[in-house]
Design brief:
- The protein is of the alpha+beta class.
- The strands form 7 sheets. It has a 4-stranded mixed beta sheet. Strands 1-4 form a two-stranded antiparallel sheet.
- The termini are far apart.
- The chain folds into 3 domains: 18-108, Roll (Membrane-bound Lytic Murein Transglycosylase D, Chain A), CATH 3.10.350; 113-161, LysM domain (Membrane-bound Lytic Murein Transglycosylase D, Chain A, Roll); 178-366, Muramoyl-pentapeptide Carboxypeptidase, domain 2 (2-Layer Sandwich).
- It has helices spanning 2-22, 69-76, 80-86, 125-129, 136-147, 163-170, 221-238, 292-304, 315-327, 332-338; strands spanning 49-50, 57-62, 100-105, 107-108, 113-118, 156-161, 187-191, 194-198, 201-202, 210-211, 218-219, 245-246, 268-272, 308-312, 352-353, 361-366.
Amino acid sequence: MQVLTLLAALLAAGAMEAEDADERPPPEEDVEDLDGDDEARSSAFSGGVEREGARARWFRHTVVKRETVEQLALRYRVKASSLREWNKLGALTQPEEGDRLRVFSAITTPPREPVEYTLREGDTWVSIARPFGANPADVRRYNYLRVRRNLDPGEVVVVWSDPTIRDAITRDAPPPGPAAEIRPGAYSYGFPHRGELVNGVRVPESDAYVLRYPNSAWGSTYAVRAAVTALHGFRARAGYGGLVRLGTMSRQRGGKVGGHRSHQSGRDLDVRLPLRAELDQQLQPSKRRVDWLATWHLIDAFLQTGAVKVIFFDYRRQKLIYRAARDAGVDEATLDEVLQWPIGKGELDGRVRHSSGHTGHIHVRFRCAPYETECVDL
């Protein structure tokens, strides 16, 4: 009898251990590794909420309309492959509405929720989606079978809205100055090199700069406001009299543009190096033509916004910026904080980092806005 009792206890303990094992955290590399890219060494959580000191934990997410594994992986900062493994989903399988997926993450963010909207005269899918921070293409797909092409006034449609983004739009407080004209509601989705731009806003025309590619001058509200603030601040503080030429940012809906690897989610902007003001401003920015002190002031203006993640520029040419700024009285501690040179181009020190092919322009990468729940900083 005692043997049977002991055996039963051992079996019960084994069952409990097996149940607990199913809820154990997965291997560390499956939890917060963004996408295996080398650039992820400098990544940081953004969007959602990572509670201070919070540890990853198991919880369940109830799937809403049109949510995908890849989208939820971005939302909770986990690998899509891990999310599939935890929920026994095949490589090509997507969850269905109402499924409750197991997730292991430190990120918490309110789920999307349905909002009913009564159509008005002149409404379009874009005008319906934008105030709610929703993707117009998704809103159309949610409702098309019922309302078809005719958006008749009085008809009710359903918008699945991310409350974090929607609240940011509702409570938006535009910054002072020229950036105030940039509307809210444009946000970045995904990675700089694999992402989208939703409800994009275009960099406005201005006397402070020239748009070289107007059709590729779209970005998120957060990034465009920061860019406009920086460019006008540069003009005001540096007294530069030459031409500031802006290159590619993103297409209106993001995605691939030209031969660029990044510039896909409205957070990357190319700016040609400022030439010496007395020169023909249409010339190519060779070393002897560039105003290197003005370049320092331009970089500083972008960093002063607090919205810049990193600036890419050729390592060897950083030396010319360093010398011009040092000769103008900038202290070495500040220079070392901003520039990678002379520490070494393989190091992660400095806000300006080496990237091949960036000799005639700087490539400014803006951070994800705090409310961009499915945007990933690299």
